[in-house]
Design brief:
This protein is mainly α. The chain is 46% helix and 10% strand. The protein has three helices and two strands.
């Protein structure tokens, strides 16, 4: 689930989706803005494997567990990002 397996394609693995979330977070965003940006990025880069909002939230959880994200005043931001 976190890494690609026989049953989980590399573009759907949580580590891949988490990296994509980190890439779209170029500035602080709300959860909804981040979700919309991720869907747009995936479509633009032909990642056709569907991901649910729940899967996106798990990917965000992975980033929090790794200490890569902060959530403050309703905005997600990469740690150290102003």
């Amino acid at each position: 689930m976190i890494t690609p397996t026989k049953g989980i394609a590399p573009q759907r693995a949580l580590v891949s989706v988490a990296a994509q979330v980190a890439m779209v977070l170029k500035e602080p965003m709300t959860i909804s803005q981040t979700w919309a940006s991720l869907k747009e990025w995936r479509e633009r880069n032909r990642h056709t494997a569907p991901i649910s909002f729940g899967w996106f939230v798990l990917a965000v959880d992975v980033l929090f567990a790794l200490g890569a994200l902060e959530y403050d005043e309703g905005l997600l931001r990469k740690k150290g990002q102003n």
